[in-house]
Amino acid sequence: MPSSSDPRPSVLVVDDSALMRRVLCDVLGGEDGGGPFRVVATARDGFDAVRKVHQYQPDVVTMDLEMPELDGLGAIGYIMSEEPRPIVVVSAHAGPGTAAAIRALELGAVEIVAKPDDRTRESLQRLAPSLIDAVRAALAADLSHVTVLARPPAPVRHAPDLGLRHRAQLAVAIAASTGGPRALAELMPRLPTGKGVAVLVVQHMPPKFTRSLAERLNSMSPIQVVEADQGTPIVADTAYVAPGDYHMRVAPAADGPIIALDQSPPIWGVRPAADPLFRSVAQLFGRRAVGVVLTGMGRDGADGLRAIHDAGGVGLAQNRESAVIAGMPQAAVQAGGVDAVLPLPQIADRIALEVARSAASRGAGGGGGRGAVGGRP
């Protein structure tokens, strides 16, 4: 075992596969022991993981979800109740793995890394960049803002669709990264309905997990929440989650804005990124847009939020005290596009206020701003 005087952050690796444990140890600690982290122990199931968290006090835990005896979800619940620390889920992105990973984030895990379908040593080693980035992000998390959710929120019954929804007249664009799924779970159920609003969400997350995130948020929210598809009309009382590995924008069409997806190069190291979405929302919706930057590391969304602000829309940022990581909202403040910095519980109320103001202006014949939907070009 490496010396306890080693200054590198310490990691506990939890997985029921001996090959996976070996690969994760090599990636994180280095095959020669010179990697970015110090692997202090490994565990093969949830009970073993809980014991070794108490024994070794690691700085971060990587957690498999599908394990015998006590599974990953059970282990996360115990750890976050007894010895809270950052947890990175390393999970399959097929079958039940994606839904379980979203539940893991509700229980207190802060990042997700997808296991490849091909479990050869070579393909597993390709996890290295995303795994190292996820562990670094987890180490930056403020766990005082990560409370345990012992039970899933009760599902919401959607009102029946009595006909086609109208095209959206207002847009709320949201950016989130580390800690974002939990923040979205608090924010989305409280967003206003019946006001002609569409919601567009960029959550930094691996491919295929975003569909489970959308399904989970849909079960909790009075608005419909879907993973976005290319060419989908943007309609009111609907939220569109950018699919993993695709940038999402809003684009003009004959009957109103539609969803546009592409796989152009990552921005700020991520795809989807919020900046392309925010800029397109600024161009098409103008002053009828609200942009929101939630918890996360880096500066994605900062420049795009400034574009919304400069187009006459409103920019909001989560405050440092309620964010798991305050990097993204702080970058947005520094870029000059933020009209208000708010605790997470107040953001939905402020969005509702801005939507009501915009709707009142529209009803009174107010202009939509340059490039805005319904406004003068």
What features would you describe in this structure?
With 377 residues, the chain is α/β, with parallel strands linked by helices. 35% of the residues lie in helices and 19% in strands. The strands form 3 sheets. It has a 7-stranded parallel sheet, sandwiched between helices. Strands 2-1-3-4-5 form a 5-stranded parallel sheet, sandwiched between helices. Helix 3 runs parallel beside helix 4, helix 4 packs across helix 8 and helix 10 crosses helix 11. It is elongated. 52% of the residues are buried.
Largest sheet: 7 strands, parallel
- Give the rounded overall mean pLDDT: 89
Number of distinct beta strands: 14
Across the major sheet, the strand order is 8-9-7-6-12-13-14
Total DSSP helices: 12
Q: What would you call the shape?
A: elongated
User: What ranges have pLDDT less than 50 throughout 5 or more consecutive residues?
Assistant: 367-377
| N- to C-terminal distance | 66 Å
* Percent of sequence in beta strands: 15-25%
The arrangement of helices and strands along the chain is EHEHEHEHEHHEHEHEEEEHEHEHEH
Radius of gyration: 21 Å
**SS-based class:** alpha/beta
Oligomer: single chain
Helix share bin: 25-40%
Quickly describe the structure:
This protein is α/β, with parallel strands linked by helices and 377 residues long.
Task: Fill in the keyword field for this structure.
seven-stranded parallel β-sheet, five-stranded parallel β-sheet, alpha/beta, 12 helices, disordered C terminus, 377 residues, single chain
Helices and strands in order:
Blueprint: E1 10-14, H1 18-29, E2 38-43, H2 46-56, E3 60-63, H3 72-82, E4 87-92, H4 97-107, E5 111-115, H5 121-125, H6 128-139, E6 170-176, H7 180-187, E7 197-203, H8 209-220, E8 224-227, E9 238-241, E10 247-251, E11 258-262, H9 274-285, E12 289-293, H10 302-310, E13 314-318, H11 327-335, E14 340-342, H12 344-363
Parallel strand pairs: 1-2, 1-3, 3-4, 4-5, 6-7, 6-12, 7-9, 8-9, 12-13, 13-14
Antiparallel strand pairs: 10-11
